[in-house]
Design a protein that fits this description.
115 residues; mainly beta; 4-stranded antiparallel sheet; 51% strand; globular
């Protein structure tokens, strides 16, 4: 049974930073694209960043230059460093493994950016 567990959410002030991590237990993430999504209050879930197994990375325009994804395939863990946080980054952040047929999702970790 594959399980994705996120950690690292919390409260940050505007301009501050937070680091998220996601560990996949029971799975080797090496062959899969791994991503972070977020769902702001009252809005749809949206892609934040996707890390492809060959090394390419796709960031949403709203986070380019502020967020950085990295992965440690040996530890089956994906990280996201979030900097220069803004109030509109407030959301529940979800880790996603793009494996077939439907992939796997973490339970989500809440990030609140507020002064």
């Amino acid at each position: 049974q594959v399980r994705l567990v996120e950690s690292g959410g919390g409260l940050a002030q505007p301009g501050g930073s937070l680091n998220l991590s996601c560990t996949a237990s029971g799975d080797d993430i090496t062959p899969y694209a791994m991503g972070w999504y977020r769902q702001p209050p009252g809005k749809e879930r949206e892609l934040v960043v996707l890390s492809w197994p060959a090394g390419s990375i796709n960031y949403a325009d709203s986070v380019k230059g502020r967020f950085t994804i990295s992965r440690d395939n040996i530890k089956s863990t994906v990280y996201m460093q979030m900097g220069n946080l803004r109030p509109d980054d407030t959301a529940v952040y979800y880790c996603h493994e793009r494996s077939v047929p439907n992939g796997y999702w973490g339970q989500g970790t809440r990030v609140t950016v507020s002064s």
